Amino acid sequence: MSAAQAHKGAVLIVESRYYPDIADGLIAGALPLLAEAGLHHERLEVPGVFEIPAAIRHAAFGGSYAGFLAFGCVIRGETSHYDHICTEASRAIMDLTTRDGLALGFGVLTCENGDQARVRADPKGKNKGAEAARACLAMIGVKQRFGGG
Predict the structure, then answer these.
(1) What is the pTM of this model?
(2) 42, 69, 101, 134: which has the fewest C-beta neighbours closer than 10 Å?
(3) 40 has catalytic annotation
(4) pLDDT-derived band of residue 62, with 50, 70 and 90 as boundaries?
């Protein structure tokens, strides 16, 4: 589905601001695609990646969004905290898509260091924000095709 064919409505961007420059890069990459699709957006800040799935679930059952973007970054440190956050946040976000049927773009970076994350978040670099927005738009289209949105 092209961006122009996407459901007219709004996408909620749930963003972890733990690394604000990385979150800003992801969002800068996504916004042109949402605008091209004619979708409005709202932003909701959460403290970290771990809080993203719960925030999306609360919004999904209390709002009327066509889709969601999950943006954040986890950088490996000296402890096993990285593994727990990456695994549990990813699993919970996947549950939102498969169990709850949400159209969701996964823009959570899991990186070895800050440099790697900045390259992936940069709209002139790997532009993972745009990649997540394309996935969200595609899933909005899938939901519409099968009567779910």
Answers:
(1) 0.92
(2) 42
(3) no
(4) confident
